[in-house]
Every structure is written in structure tokens, then in C-alpha cells.
Amino acid sequence: MGLLDGQVALITGGGRGLGRAISLALAAEGASVAIDDIFRDENGVSVADEVVAEIEAIGARGLALRENVTTSEGASAMVAQTVEKFGRLDILVMCAGNMVRGKLEDLTEEQWDGLMSLHVKGHFLACKYAIPQMKKQNSGSIITVSSRGAFFQVPASKTETKDLRQPPSTVYSAAKAAIMGLTTTLAVELWETGIRVNSLLPSATTQLFPESKPRMVGGVPPSESLDPADVAPAVVFLSTPAAKNISGKFVYASGGDIIVYGDQLDVRGSRMVRKHGRWDAAELADVLPSLLGVPVGE
Length: 298
Ligand SMILES: NC(=O)c1ccc[n+]([C@@H]2O[C@H](COP(=O)([O-])OP(=O)(O)OC[C@H]3O[C@@H](n4cnc5c(N)ncnc54)[C@H](O)[C@@H]3O)[C@@H](O)[C@H]2O)c1
Hints:
It comes from Microbacterium pygmaeum. The chain is an alpha/beta fold.
């Protein structure tokens, strides 16, 4: 028996990196998983097809999609094809993303618009077309993907310059902060429905962040691993009945570290739990609700 038997998930950007790891973890718990990803390798092979093959190899059901999440046509087709194939939609995880590095003064208008569109409009459109189906089912778990990079630590005073961490990109931070705003607001908008909205703040080595380094952020010591598979159990947990009272929260996951942010207006007010190794979703059901201060679901 998997924790997600009979459930259907749609993962944007599911062909590589965190989306791939999350897709495999959801499938391993019994979910049927639709993988949307526009990327094809140099031989024209679709990464969505590759992940579906991995999912089918563990005996689960998968669906490969290659829709562009930044267009209404793409986002609506992605949801429609998922429901057509699997009959429902329970879990939406939005991993489609990219990065543009550089100082604000050097960014072009096209770079700004492109990155904001992929992250922010991509979240808007995926949610817009998924929510009506979830409302019909009176339930749903929406996982937005944000980043601790949404906010950078500002030194107490301009006299402090030592160890100042340079942000890689203002537009990326702005997009991720927008997703955090979308998360809390949408969670409240959907409060009376059975649809929950939570945000994953991951850290892992992927093709997008090949140079990710474990490092101290906000007084939190660096995690012990940057394997994307270590991030996935938090998403699995947030989609299980044990998380049914959790909505509008930000959950950071990296290696064996889970951090929850207590007050959304004070993202630095965090509580942390560390395991030496990878969590599984059932273990997180024991620790996360109390860390978040919400009752455990059934
Ligand atoms: N890796 C990290 O440490 C880290 C940290 C914080 C946040 N994130 C966020 O996690 C998400 C996943 O990042 P990742 O590191 O796994 O990167 P990744 O590049 O491995 O995966 C992103 C996937 O999105 C796909 N994609 C891009 N544009 C798309 C579109 N228009 N429609 C459909 N698919 C599209 C890409 O082809 C790619 O496969 C991103 O939003 C990223 O900003 C990652």
C-alpha cells in the first residue's frame, strides 16, 4: 500500500532535476503521474518520456506531456490531458523554472519578462486550470516552488560588508517572492474548499544549479546532501491525508534538513529539524505538523 494509491499528480518541469525526483517519489507511493516538460536532449529525446519510462519501470502509471506552461493553451491542455488519461487530478507541483544571472542594470527587458513569465505566470496558469477540477473533487494539494533566494539577508548596518552574500539575480528573487505571495493568498482564497496550497523551498544540485553548495543561510548550518531525491519526501508528505490541516505554509527541504517558516511575514523566524540521511514521508508526518503548530490529519 502506497501513501498515494489512487491519486493523480501533475508535475510541471517534471523531466529533470527536482521535478523528476518528485515525480518518481510520488509514483513510488502509488500516484499516477503526468510529467510536463518542454525539454528534448540533443538527440531529440523528450525528458518527459524518459521519466515516464522510469515510472513505468517501477509499476506505476505515467503520462508524458510537452506543453509550455507560460501559455493558456499549454497550461489548459496539460491539465485536460491529465484528467482525460487518469480521470482526476489530486496533486499539482510546479517545478518548471529557469534562471537568468546578472545585475539588474544589465538585465534586458526580454530577460525580465521571460523569467517572470515562466515562474509567476506559469504558476498562475497551472493553478487556474487545475483548480476547477480539484474543486469538483473537493480536494487537492497544490505545491508551489519558491526559494530561500526570494529574500537575501541584509546586514544590520551599511558598515557591515564582510561575508555579504551576493544575490545571483534580482529577477529570480522577485519571481520567487511573488510565488510566496501567490501561495499564501491562494491558500486563503481556497480555505473553505478542500484544496490546500503550500510552497516548497528546495536546495539541490541540478542542471539549473550545478554549482549548488551546502552553505549557511539565515543562521542555519549547511545541509549534508544536495541530492534532489532528498527533497521529494516533503512534497509526498504535503500531499497525504496526514497533511490535511496544512495550507499556506513554506517548507524548506534539502538533504536531511526541513525548515518551516512560522510567521509568513517574518521568513527568518524559522524552526529546524535535522536527520542524518533522507526523511521519508511517514516520518515527516510525525514531526512536521507539530513543528508547524497544526493538528495532525488522519
Ligand atoms: N535546485 C535548487 O537548488 C533550487 C533551489 C530553489 C528553487 N529551485 C526551483 O526549483 C524548480 C526546479 O528547479 P531544478 O533545479 O530542478 O531545475 P531543472 O532545470 O533541472 O528543472 C526545471 C525543468 O523545467 C522545465 N521547463 C522550463 N521551462 C518550461 C516550460 N515553459 N514549460 C514546461 N517545462 C519547462 C525545464 O526543461 C527543466 O527540465 C525551479 O523553479 C527552481 O527555480 C531550485
